[in-house]
Each structure stands twice: as C-alpha cells, then as structure tokens.
Amino acid sequence: MSTKDEEPVGNPLCLHCGTELIGHVLFCPKCGCPATPAALSMPYESVLARGFMAREGSSRPRKLIIVIGMWVLFGPTFLIMTGFLIAGLSAAPNIVEQLSRQPKDIFPAIVVLVFCSGLAAISGALVYKTTKNYVQRRPEATEKPEDDADADEDLNEGDVAQ
Ligand SMILES: [Zn+2]
C-alpha cells in the first residue's frame, strides 16, 4: 500500500535482515527469519520459527515482528505450563498422598514436573528477554550512515505492508 509511487509491488523483504524474498518462501533464505505469519502457525514450520526466534530473536530484536513472533510462539507455552504448575502445586498434598501409595508413579511424576518447569522457564525467559531487549534497544539512527538508511526505509515499508 505504498502511496509514494506507482511501481508494481516487488518481492517482499525479510523483516529481519532485508533480503529480498523470491517466490512463496516461508523463511528468509539468508537469516532464517519467518517470512510470513503462516510460518508461525503451521506445525512443522513453527518449529523452525521457534528455533530462529530462540537463536536470534531474544539477543537483538530490532523489529517489532520479532517480539510479536516471540509472544505468539512462546507466550502460550509459558502460560499453559505455569498454569499447569500452579494447579499441580495446589493439588500437591493429594498428589503426594497418591504417590506414597503408589511409589512406582513417582518417576513419571518427576519427569512431568521437570518437563513443565523447564518449558515454563525457557519460554518465560525468552519472552521476557526479547521484550526487554526490544524496549531497551539503542536507536537505529546511530548505527550506520547513508546506504543503510535507505535499506531501513525499505524495511519499514515492508513492515507496514504486512
Ligand atoms: Zn532475513
């Protein structure tokens, strides 16, 4: 929806690194950033998107899309796992009593506890770190002069188009 000129819409640009995305790709071939919201919702693709977000997103999230992607991908995991742990905590006396009668169930219970705690901790830390780094990021104007300023303008148009 560019009003600046009447040029036909070209290929979209990667929201993360600005690489031109040719064809209907779900991920940027250069940096691996999800190229479309579809990449966040499809089962296999969302695993790749999570990998990218975990690797790249939390350390230097320069674009809002990265922060949103992080919340979409890891927010629900954090909320569900935290809710699960709180529910388990409130039922702890019953669970302990149950386990004392059936000691062979202790190992699976510990596995579930460790798994849920781990997922809650990892997803919570990623969402928190990404949001914090995005809010506290340095202004992009101080990064580089001239040529990069043009690239940033193109990127911002891409953001609006999405
Ligand atoms: Zn890219």
Question: Quick recap of the structure?
Answer:
The chain is built from six helices and no strands.
3D structure, described in words:
With 162 residues, the protein is mostly helical. It has a domain at 38-136. The chain has helices spanning 38-41, 43-57, 64-90, 92-101, 106-135, 147-161. Helix 2 crosses helix 3 and helix 3 (64-90) runs antiparallel to helix 5. The protein starts with 37 loop residues before the first helix and ends with a helix. It binds zinc ion (ZN). Residues 14, 16-17, 19, 28, 30-31, 33 line the site of zinc ion (ZN).
Tell me the helix content: 55-70%
Taking the sheet with the most strands, its summary is: none
The number of distinct helices, counting runs of at least 4 residues, comes to 6
- As residue ranges, the low-confidence spans are 141-162
Q: What is the global morphology?
A: elongated
**Strand-and-helix sequence, N→C?**
HHHHHH
Overall mean pLDDT stands at 80
Give the ligands present: zinc ion
Strand percent estimate: under 5%
Cα gyration radius (Å): 21 Å
Number of beta strands: 0
Helix-strand category? mainly alpha
